[in-house]
Amino acid sequence: MGGNYYRTLSRSERSAIPIHRHSRRNHRTEEFGGKKCREDLLKELDKAEVLQKAAKDKRDKLAGADAEKDRTRWDEYVKMKDEYEKNAIAYREAEAKLAEFNRTHGDDIPRYSAQLVNYYKSEQVGHNNAIEEQKNRSENCGKLEYMSY
CA angle at residue 58 from 57 to 62, to 5 degrees? Predict the structure, then answer.
């Protein structure tokens, strides 16, 4: 792979690469910043979904409450209704953050990061081969010095 590698990538792959390059410089691991960020957004979305579902279940259990007959149960129903709305908003915000991240960096970060790691490894192999060839040339030139004509 040569210098044309970047041009062979799709637009979404090219937009994902800068965050990986930055992370590679900082961490030198396969745990890239974009990958970690996306995982955090997915965890946030899952957490918001669980909270929303729990509040919805509680709200639905109290749905038959009557304000005139059982005021305590009604107050609890109103509280659960408000909590459900709050959790629904948090879920929509988490969903919007993930969608924005996907639009910006792509939704297949692990594949992009694997491609980038493979690219860097192949480039490193190429550089190591060139270094070895240069060492061999240097050694052979040194041997020629001692030959008599």
Answer: 115
Answer yes or no: is 12 within a domain. no
> How do residues 29-62 score in pLDDT, each as one tens digit?
434 567 788 888 889 999 999 999 999 998 888 8
**What is each CA distance from 106 to 24, 68, 96, 127, in whole angstroms?**
18, 53, 14, 30
When divided into structural domains, the chain yields a total of 1
Q: Is 89 part of a structural domain of the chain?
A: yes
Are 35 and 110 a contacting pair, CB within 8 Å? Answer: yes
Q: How many residues belong to the chain? A: 149
**Alpha carbons within 13 A on the beta-carbon side of 55:** 20
What is the rounded CA–CA span in Å between residue 55 and residue 60? 9
Contact (CB, 8 A) for 19 and 105: yes
> Which residue bears the tokens 């001692």?
146
The segment with the largest mean pLDDT, out of 28-32, 67-71, 93-97, 135-139, is: 93-97
Buried b (16+ CB within 10 A) or exposed e, 123-140: eeeeeeeeeeeeeeeeee
